[in-house]
Amino acid sequence: MSARPVLVVLLGLAASLPGCSTNVGDECTASAECGPGRFCDRASRGGYCTVSPCSPNSCPDNSVCVRFENDQTFCMALCSAQDDCRDGYDCVEDDGAPVAYCRQANAH
Question: Does the pTM exceed 0.85?
């Protein structure tokens, strides 16, 4: 067996292991880190795995579609308290979403 098929099999197994998937709101430096159908918004502090555009009820689990001032929509991580958000992000409620979500601090 050549090295290439073994590498493909190993990469496939690694991707299916628990804990290897990313969630909306996770840090990233490249879209490949965010998983299928997601991209890394590098304009956000530390990168932000998200989906855009989105529509209501179209985001992955534990995220919500938010319409921002510029009329763009992004899936954002849900939160119920500040501790649910990573450093540099605030748990906010605003007119852009029906529930609280993690938004970059000082980006209001």
Answer: no
**What is the arithmetic mean of pLDDT over 69-97?**
92
Tokens 């007119």, located at residue: 95
pLDDT at 21: 66
Please tell me whether the peptide bond between 18 and the residue prior to it is cis, using omega within 30 degrees of 0. Answer: no
Q: Within a 10 A sphere around the Cβ of 92, how many other Cβ atoms?
A: 20
pLDDT at residue 1 greater than cutoff 60? no
- Is residue 39's pLDDT more than 70? yes
- What is the radius of gyration, based on Cα positions, of the chain? 16
> Which candidate, 95, 98, 78, places its Cα nearest to that of 108?
95
Give the phi and the psi of residue 5 in degrees, each rounded to 5: -60, -35
The Cα-based distances of 65 to 4, 6, 11, 86, 94 in angstroms read: 40, 39, 31, 19, 12
Q: Which residues pair with 27 in a beta bridge?
A: none
* Backbone φ and ψ of 4, nearest 5°: -60, -50
